[in-house]
């Protein structure tokens, strides 16, 4: 039997192999019944920023969208730039199947076609390309969902560097074939867990392209609040500012991910995105615990972050949903 790196043929066996905390593996089906009729857009959902950066190919070319200056530096000082790129472009250290089992239900997936590649293979990206191809990875997601029939995932595909309309249509056709009846159409008026379970829908596929209009199985791009700041307090200030403006309609993401400018990276050669994230975690954790989901203008929906495996983001975000329970239910639970 094989795992996700080569294709999943037995998801149950793969699940047993993983040495991890399984408490959030089926958290949606474990929610109290009084939350089953709340729309997913009003639940608190844990998300993974740049979900596939755990398998970056350090020897792959830079994305064409990187600046000419950066590309020149990388060409001249390859042995120096590549370790730095790897340290700061890696935002996750767990496989997508492990992230699913940890409780992640929103995946930020940046898709691209490599330049001068004659094949139809697509890869994920973050400054460079990944080892794993897109379809092989998403096959693992489909297998995992087969063994967790009441879990619903939101796959947000974006960027699409190097893809023309023909490649888009081929990719979309493959996605439809792969997920089939699991795909929730965007016209679905009731997005509660109870309704989705009844229809067998498990995948909400967001596709950041105008081609969405041609395909009823695709959802438009989901707004992502990205602070582009390097400290927790700056990120929190940005998120609070957006909250004061009122939540968007539908799904939206509050990004906890930190971003270090290149000047900071150059001055701090011993640091990495991992060390920066961990050193700021306590402040971010306290902020997350104070948040609430729901329909109020200042409520949150998807909360995404980096290193969702070692950091307890999933449990923190999932726990926020209990704030939606009627007070009578929570008081009764405390009594017992």
Automatic annotation (TrEMBL):
<dbReference type="InterPro" id="IPR051057">
    <property type="entry name" value="PI-PLC_domain"/>
</dbReference>
<dbReference type="InterPro" id="IPR042158">
    <property type="entry name" value="PLCXD1/2/3"/>
</dbReference>
<dbReference type="InterPro" id="IPR000909">
    <property type="entry name" value="PLipase_C_PInositol-sp_X_dom"/>
</dbReference>
<protein>
    <recommendedName>
        <fullName>Phosphatidylinositol-specific phospholipase C X domain-containing protein</fullName>
    </recommendedName>
</protein>
<feature type="domain" description="Phosphatidylinositol-specific phospholipase C X">
    <location>
        <begin position="34"/>
        <end position="208"/>
    </location>
</feature>
<dbReference type="InterPro" id="IPR017946">
    <property type="entry name" value="PLC-like_Pdiesterase_TIM-brl"/>
</dbReference>
């Amino acid at each position: 039997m094989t795992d996700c790196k080569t294709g999943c043929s037995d998801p149950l066996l793969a699940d047993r192999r993983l040495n991890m905390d399984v408490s959030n593996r089926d958290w949606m089906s474990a929610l109290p019944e009084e939350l089953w009729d709340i729309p997913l857009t009003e639940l608190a959902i844990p998300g993974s920023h740049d979900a596939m950066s755990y398998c970056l190919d350090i020897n792959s070319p830079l994305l064409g969208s990187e600046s000419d200056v950066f590309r020149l530096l990388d060409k001249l000082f390859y042995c120096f730039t590549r370790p730095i790129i790897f340290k700061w472009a890696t935002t996750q250290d767990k496989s997508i199947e492990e992230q699913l089992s940890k409780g992640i239900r929103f995946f930020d997936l940046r898709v691209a076609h490599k330049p001068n590649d004659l094949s139809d293979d697509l890869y994920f990206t973050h400054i460079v390309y990944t080892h794993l191809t897109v379809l092989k990875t998403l096959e693992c997601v489909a297998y995992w969902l087969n063994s967790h029939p009441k879990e619903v995932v939101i796959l947000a595909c974006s960027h699409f560097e190097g893809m023309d309309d023909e490649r888009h249509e081929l990719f979309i056709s493959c996605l439809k074939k792969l997920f089939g009846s699991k795909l929730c159409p965007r016209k679905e008026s009731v997005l509660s867990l109870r309704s989705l379970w009844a229809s067998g829908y498990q995948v909400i596929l967001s596709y950041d392209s105008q081609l969405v209009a041609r395909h009823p199985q695709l959802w438009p791009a989901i707004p992502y609040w990205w602070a582009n700041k390097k400290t927790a307090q700056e990120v929190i200030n940005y998120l609070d500012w957006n909250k004061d403006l009122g939540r968007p309609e539908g799904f939206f993401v509050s990004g906890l991910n930190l971003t270090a400018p290149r000047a900071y990276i150059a001055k701090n050669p011993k640091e990495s995105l991992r060390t920066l994230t961990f050193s700021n975690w306590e402040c971010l954790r306290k902020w997350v615990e104070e948040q609430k989901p729901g329909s109020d203008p200042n409520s949150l929906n998807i909360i995404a972050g980096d290193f969702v495996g070692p950091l307890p983001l999933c449990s923190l975000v999932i726990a926020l949903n209990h704030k939606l329970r009627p007070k009578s239910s929570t008081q009764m639970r405390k009594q017992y």
